[in-house]
Design a protein that fits this description.
Order of helices and strands: HHHHHH
Distance between the termini: 55 Å
Largest sheet: none
Radius of gyration: 19 Å
Shape: globular
Oligomer: single chain
Helix content: 55-70%
Number of domains: 1
Amino acid sequence: MMHMIKQYLAHPVLVLLLRVVLGSVFVISGLDKIADINAFIHAIINYQLIGNAVATLVATILPWLEILCGLGLILGIYPRTSSFIMTLLLIVFTILVGSAMIRGLDISCGCFTQDPFANKIGWQKIAENIGLIIVGIFLVSVKNWTLVFENSRFLKKQSHVHHS
């Protein structure tokens, strides 16, 4: 029974589907943040943990990191590294949401839309993040990646040199 479960979980189609789902979440989230960077800066500041200068730096770098990792995962360019970074980000995001909830803040998470009245922090956001963290951990643990550029002949190093 356990062997059968492992076989299904390791199926290349499932792995590809999960790559596309997690990668898309990050690409869409990053694009939305770039589209309205000032609103994203305010969403970061609303967590009341960092000042304007650091919030501006985070708002400038984070969306591009999300897009880069999301595309890397979807396209199979260093998918394990992309999954690892995204999982770490999700853990940090979840801790930040939990911290804001404990402190009684009634704020938007700043995840997708920068509308301050949408996507309020709460248990639903924590549950969503935990689900994505599980997907990320699973993808980090995948042993045999298929449909990735790392496995292509373009990125493989030649182990021997041909002499004429």
